[in-house]
Specification:
The complex is a heterodimer. By secondary structure, chain A is α+β, with helices and mostly antiparallel strands. Chain A is about 35% helix and about 30% strand. Chain A folds into two domains: about 35 residues; about 110 residues, OB fold (Dihydrolipoamide Acetyltransferase, E2P). Chain A has three helices and seven strands. In chain A, α2 links the parallel β1 and β2. The longest helix of chain A has 30 residues. The relative contact order of chain A is 0.17. Chain B is an alpha+beta fold. Among the domains of chain B are: about 160 residues, no CATH class; about 200 residues, no CATH class; about 100 residues. In chain B, the strands form two sheets. In chain B, strands 3, 4, 5, 6, 7 and 8 form a six-stranded antiparallel beta sheet that branches. The longest helix of chain B has about 35 residues. Chain B is globular and about 80 Å long. The C terminus of chain B is likely disordered. Classes of the chains: A alpha+beta, B alpha+beta. The interface between A and B is large, with 39 and 52 residues. β1 of chain A pairs antiparallel with β1 of chain B.
Chain lengths: ~150, ~675
């Protein structure tokens, strides 16, 4: 092989690598976007079944129930219009409280949201933006006079 | 009074910064003579302002708004210091102070190293940046504002920040962030000078002079990120050390571009070296990204422990500064780039040469930075457009970043062995083949023994390969010195240290990703259970009193399979006036693995939920990252090689010295096993 060919080959390899990187990137991006839905949207059937997404809102007071082993629990997340039953296993974050804002990531399965991750944020006064968004959306829908 | 004096000093500093920024550009030689004293004076004035606020914090002067907001009477002394940069206003003051510090250091080091006119232009650019941020500070976030009526006690520092690591993290990180302003200023000054005679010498002078500063800033940035990550690991109670959240990415992107910049500087600093325009662009881009990071973190666009207040006015101001710096820099580049055409390299770039491999390094690093940028900005842009919120999770970054890093690591083991021009025999690189085969074989064996998949094998192979190749280089260098050859210069050792650190880091990450175990369970006091190979017993839960918090402390006995016993004491803390609950995880650090135990909540029937994580490889992660940062510092500190006088770059004839000391000693200086078979 002449040096010229070798060089050409090298540049082709670079181009190929770049293309591969771009393809990987877009694929990963598309697959790992986590969408957000409000409890109202989930209850009205707008959320996908089986794909991971996030819901946010306020933990409904009095809704937290524990299973016998103490680690599994169920609670409801509401946005003022609808309630969404959530199931979770594991240690909760420090700032998880009834009546406070929460964001959960998981899947919608058989009428229940199976959470893999429950987040409540660093600051006691702080409402996670997704939870705030859910409350606002429900509020706007109620004001407009129609159910979302 | 002191606080008002401080305020006045900072106002004066703004004036001085403006003069430092404008005079050298408009007032010719006389103005240029003023740049260096102005840089020193600006730093002095800002230091006065900073000291005035420190004093207010130490003496609990709650009439100052930021003292009332971020401190309180019981706060320990160390945290009273760090509370100054625990809020928006104070941290911004730290930002401009450190920018002025870099400027003053440059002014001090410049004589004899930089042409006076060039140094003055660099300082002018720094002055303009300083003036912009001082304007921002004084107009939107005055740290000297007083309160009336004066509160009796302060509001306390966010308990998450009450930690020694957090006290040091912001100053070091900011040193890195604003330090990237130096390569930026060098690039802008070079563009301002425009085409002149002797472009080749000036290119080399520019790049050689910018290099130590870029290295120093990059090391500080890396060190700052390391401290932040270290803190998140033991303080947030989740046991993670990198979450790919927007704030981390904001610091990581300039670091990636900085890494690319260091490597491209190495090429373009050579006589007739390649990709000089690219180097200019990277220098501009690095600081642009660090400004973007400042914007993301400080404007409240991203919600995190770093976003102190979401004030749209502040965000707009930083966006304005970002726009001015980016448009100014890149506009200048667009205007001048054609005139600044570098002389065509004598030989076309060979992909197999060190320069060619460094080009691939830059392509990969730039691509990696681009993917992080996409993942970070996309949700924010959608949010700004009013679309429903989405998030890009860690899986995206893992899927994209790792495949980009693997070829980079493979090239890293090869590059430093190659000469700058590819036309050389492969004998000198003979040791590479056994090293590569050894790394791959160990990885295969490791994957089989531990029953792990391809990901594990690739990570193990990459880490071992980088480590082995770098150690072999260092051995070769030392051996050559011992045999009377040239001593490898300090920057070379810095490079080896950083590369070896990266190898160690990769090994640590691989181990931690593949061998980590998490056990979640609940226990009543006196009860025990088996978690993997360990046996865990909750002995008691009692109350404890800290200086400014109350805590519930669990005594947990963990027993290993070989009879080892550890007592871990995770806590739930309740802090001061805000009554904030915090999980203080218990950490049992060992060389091979960490035991990480967090206390969950008290369950209604009196049991406690607990989470035990077994995390291998953490020591390697921290040591590796530390070595990377220290290596950069070492390289910044040492002299690369005696500067050749302009116009006489040829090595003295007679003795067959290698082109670059330490890179590739003559074959007969090599130890027999490394000499290869001719």
């Amino acid at each position: 092989m002449k040096p010229r060919h070798l060089r050409l080959l090298g540049w082709l390899a670079v181009l190929g690598l770049l293309g591969l990187a771009l393809a990987l990137l877009l694929r990963a991006f598309e697959q790992n976007l986590v969408f957000f839905f409000t409890p109202s949207q989930v209850q009205t059937g707008q959320a996908p079944e089986g794909r991971s997404f996030r819901v946010g809102g306020l933990v409904t007071p009095g809704s937290v129930q524990r299973e016998a082993d103490g680690l599994g629990l169920r609670f409801e997340v509401g946005d003022g219009a609808h309630q969404l039953p959530v199931r979770y296993r594991g240690v909760l974050p420090d700032l998880f409280r009834e009546g406070k804002g929460v964001v959960a990531q998981g899947r919608w399965m058989q009428g229940e949201f199976a959470a893999e991750l429950v987040m409540a944020k660093h600051d006691e006064n702080y409402l996670p933006p997704e939870a705030a968004h859910a409350l606002e959306a429900a509020q706007a829908a109620t004001n407009a006079g129609g159910k979302p | 009074m002191t606080v008002e004096l401080g305020h006045f000093a900072v106002l004066l500093a703004l004036l001085v910064a403006l003069l430092q920024g404008l005079l050298p550009l408009v007032a010719g030689a006389r103005g240029q003579a003023l740049a260096r004293p102005a840089a020193g004076l600006q730093f002095g004035l800002l230091a006065l302002g900073f000291a005035a606020l420190l004093q207010a914090f130490v003496t609990h002067d709650f009439s100052v708004a930021i003292v009332a907001a971020h401190s309180q009477r019981e706060l320990p002394l160390l945290y009273r210091f760090s509370a100054l940069w625990g809020g928006h206003e104070g941290s911004l003051l730290l930002w401009v102070l450190l920018l002025a510090l870099w400027g003053a250091l440059l002014a001090w080091r410049a004589p004899g190293r930089l042409p006076p006119a060039f140094a003055a232009r660099v300082l002018a650019v720094l002055g303009l940046l300083g003036a912009g941020f001082l304007g921002f500070l004084l107009l939107t976030s005055n740290p000297f504002a007083r309160l009336s009526p004066v509160p009796l006690d302060g509001h306390d520092l966010n308990p998450l920040l009450q930690d020694p690591g957090m006290a040091l993290h912001p100053p070091l990180l900011y040193l890195g962030y604003v330090g990237l302003a130096l390569p930026y200023a060098f690039a802008v000054a070079a563009l301002l000078e425009g085409p002149l005679q002797g472009a080749e010498e000036r290119w080399q002078a520019w790049t050689e002079a910018a290099r130590p500063w870029a290295l120093a800033a990059w090391s500080c940035l890396g060190g700052g990120i390391l401290l932040g990550s270290f803190w998140a690991y033991y303080e947030l109670g989740w046991g993670g050390w990198w979450f790919w959240d927007a704030v981390e990415n904001a610091a990581f992107m300039p670091w990636l571009v900085g890494t690319a910049l260091l490597h491209s500087l190495a090429v373009s600093a050579r006589p007739g070296g390649a990709f000089r325009h690219w180097t200019l662009l990277l220098a501009l881009l690095g600081f642009a990204l660090s400004l973007l990071g400042t914007f993301l973190v400080r404007s409240g666009v991203v919600s995190s422990v770093h976003a102190f207040a979401s004030d749209p006015q502040r965000g707009l101001f930083i966006l304005g500064l970002l726009g001015a710096a980016v448009l100014g820099g890149f506009g200048l580049y667009g205007w001048r780039a054609l005139q600044l055409r570098a002389p065509a390299p004598a030989k076309p770039l060979q992909l197999g040469s060190r320069a060619g491999l460094l080009m691939l390094n830059n392509v990969l690093l730039a691509a990696a930075c681009g993917t992080v940028l996409l993942g970070t900005l996309y949700p924010l842009v959608l949010d700004a457009l009013g679309a429903p919120p989405i998030s890009v999770g860690a899986p995206y970054f893992d899927t994209v970043f790792v495949p980009l890093m693997l070829p980079l690591l493979a090239l890293l083991g090869l590059g430093p062995w190659r000469r700058w021009d590819a036309h050389e025999p492969w004998q000198a690189q003979r040791p590479l083949l056994p090293l590569a085969l050894g790394a791959v074989a160990s990885a295969v064996v490791g994957a089989l023994v531990w029953q792990q998949g391809l990901g594990f094998a690739l990570g193990l192979a990459a880490g071992l390969w980088v480590l082995a190749s770098t150690l072999a280089l260092a051995l070769r260098g030392s051996w050559a010195t011992w045999r009377g050859g040239p001593r490898p210069p300090l920057p070379r050792w810095g490079q080896w240290l950083a590369h070896a650190g990266l190898g160690l880091f990769v090994l640590g990450v691989t181990a931690s990703r593949h061998f980590e175990q998490t056990h979640e369970f609940s226990l009543a006091t006196g009860q025990g259970l088996h978690a993997g190979a360990l046996h865990v017993t909750l002995e008691s839960v009692r109350t404890a009193q800290g200086t400014n918090y109350r805590a519930l402390q669990a005594q947990v006995r963990v027993e290993g399979p070989e009879g080892q016993r550890w007592l871990l004491q995770p806590e739930k803390r309740l802090y001061g006036p805000r009554q904030v609950v915090m999980t203080e995880a218990a950490l049992q650090r060992q060389f091979g693995r960490d035991l990480y135990l967090s206390l969950g909540e008290a369950l209604p029937d009196g049991r406690w939920s607990l989470r035990l994580q077994v995390k291998p490889g953490m020591t390697a992660i921290w040591l590796g990252a530390l070595a990377i940062a220290l290596g950069g510092g070492l390289a910044a500190w040492g002299r690369r090689q005696p500067r050749p006088q302009l116009g006489q770059q040829a090595a003295p004839t007679g003795v067959p010295t290698p082109k670059e000391p330490g890179t590739a000693p003559p074959l007969d200086l090599l130890p027999p096993p490394l000499r290869g078979i001719p």
